[in-house]
Amino acid sequence: MLVVDDQFLIRAGLVGVLRAAPGIEVVGEAGDGTEAVELAAATRPDVILMDIRMPGMNGITATERILADAAEPPPRILVLTTFDLDEYVYGALRAGAAGFLLKDSGPERLLAAVAAVGSGDALFAPSVTRRLVEAFAVRSGAVPAEEPPPDLAALTGRELEVLKLIARGLSNAEIADRLYISEATVKTHLNRTMNKLDLDTRAQAVVIAYETGLVTPGAGL
């Protein structure tokens, strides 16, 4: 994995924890976004720990460039932030980051997050994604959609239903229960939705639901 942070002591601490853990290989360290893009291309890590706020190229731009240039499968990017409602986190999720982690998290939380992201699992509860996205959807002035937004025209009625519930913070199991379908069917609808919209992560799907007005902040289920 690749560790990116402009503060040497923080980066060294992260690397030390990761290298002491079994099954984790740190293939590089970067002190800014530009170096991160170069190292990601050279080392092709499975997971990248990406600081958001850095001088020069920030973590959002670096995330976009790394994912745009990556070979399949692309790396899973876990962004590091000081505050969980940081506007930069919203931008990183929109850019395709798989999740975020607070910088004051302990070693156990760090290793658990890296393991979850590395295996493709959701890193944080869907409700956390919803809370984050709602906070910034309010600022951006997203408005209710009377009809499916044009960007979502390719989706079936059921796919729209699943996307709405994902954006509301429901888990796959909760969506299955609400729609009287199996979890496998929920996953199928979600995968088709993400393919049609050219999305890489569940967080991106949530962002799209709010930005298109399919779902509006504060609305009930």
Give an overview in words.
By secondary structure, the chain is α/β, with parallel strands linked by helices. It has two domains: 122 residues, 3-Layer(aba) Sandwich (Rossmann fold); 61 residues, Orthogonal Bundle (Arc Repressor Mutant, subunit A). It is 52% helix and 10% strand. A five-stranded parallel beta sheet has the order 2-1-3-4-5, sandwiched between helices. Helix 8 packs across helix 9. It starts with a strand and ends in a 10-residue tail after the last helix. The model has no long low-confidence stretch (mean pLDDT 85).
Oligomer: single chain
Relevant CATH superfamily of the largest domain: Response regulator
User: If strands are numbered along the chain, what order do they take across the biggest sheet?
Assistant: 2-1-3-4-5
Q: What fold name goes in the CATH topology slot of the largest domain? A: Rossmann fold
Number of helical regions:
10
* Rg, Å, rounded: 18 Å
CATH class of the largest domain: Alpha Beta
Q: What's the end-to-end separation, in Å?
A: 39 Å
Helix content: 40-55%
**Mean pLDDT figure:** 85
Query: Strand-and-helix sequence, N→C?
Result: EHEHEHEHEHHHHHH
Q: State the CATH architecture of the largest domain.
A: 3-Layer(aba) Sandwich
Largest sheet: 5 strands, parallel
Which properties best describe this structure?
single chain, 221 residues, Arc Repressor Mutant, subunit A, 2 domains, five-stranded parallel sheet, 10 helices, globular, transcription regulation, LuxR family transcriptional regulator, phosphoprotein, WalR-like, Sig_transdc_resp-reg_receiver
